[in-house]
Amino acid sequence: MTDDRYLKRTIVKEVISSRYLPEGTRELRVYLPPGYNELLSYPVVYCQDGEDFFNFGRIATIANQLILDEGVEPFLIVGVDVDKKKRSAEYTPDGQLFAGYTAFFAEELISFIENKYPARREADQRILAGDSLGGTVSLHLALAYPELFRQVISLSGAFYLRSRSLASQETDLSKLELYMIVGLQETNYETDTGVYDFVDINREMKSILEQKGARIHYGEHEGRHVWGFWQKFIPAALKTFLQIEA
């Protein structure tokens, strides 16, 4: 049975204006940890597919449990919503809306959050998280803006050929750290652009990134390309990058 304390979540809805997004705005959800105090400062987890991370990943409930019972330092979560019809165009590096979305994320979203909430401003206090193509765009944000992002959670990242090619062109990724998982039953996953072996493409991306000096926490587990699989690993992913208080 879920402890009722985990379900007492504070989630603030926000709307941010953008000069980079065609629609001009984007909806956000911001999780505030138990004991939230504006006089303190907090690391921040930035989630692609924000609505899914909260509804299907249950990340706010998981955060409460980690903070209240496991001594994880309190942190903020920012879920960035996405129109599923535009998701591929925004999240893939050859997508028509990719440049605008990544510029919005790095140049507008971060400053919006850090000016409105007591968020820490160091690169190692910002964590990017995403599932499938959300893992893809999170990695590319870290590659494009290394001064802003150094830590990435990738749940079954959709690292198609273009992503692997771009990563191969990097020279020094020694400051980059990733938590990567993939399901062993994802070897024949059908997408809108074809059928892919996600185990193979994640193994290849891991190898590419390690050759460039990145630190990888990698795991292959029994599971499919669904939130029921990813949700199980969110606690371990968060604890990889967040401090445990004494």
Automatic annotation (TrEMBL):
InterPro entries: AB_hydrolase_fold, Esterase-like, Mycobacterial_A85_antigen. It holds the Pfam family Esterase. This is Enterochelin esterase.
